[in-house]
Task: structure prediction
Amino acid sequence: MQMDGFLTLKGGNVELVGAPETIFVLPIGHVVSSKGEFDVDEESYKAMKAQIAKRGVDLVVDYEHQTLNKATNGQPAPAAGWFKGLEWREGQGLFMVQIEWTERARAMIASGEYRYLSPVFGFDSQTGAVTYIHSVALTNDPALIGLADL
Result:
């Protein structure tokens, strides 16, 4: 299983007065990004849902993937928000659900300081199937180009 794959997709329209509690995060099917190729299907969803349940904690939305980088750069990794899990929507893909944004993140999105989401996930190196989600980041450098912003 690899943990170096990043994929950024349209996060939906963020309404900052009552920020969204659900945002699209991964499409169904074979996905090509600047970081690699991955496959997302209902089995991927089931594997990620089981992994989230096993961890038993909300998943972080951070800034610029700092949760992954804090050990090497020594900088703090504050949360932009938290989400409780994923939801599968047939014909659409995976959605982050029950998102709780921090006031700072709301302000940064509203002012245009951040425009994209980037999930951090693991995938099976043999099959390319996504099997694990680590976190999601607010970023301005998405791996998948040409999608709508937050």
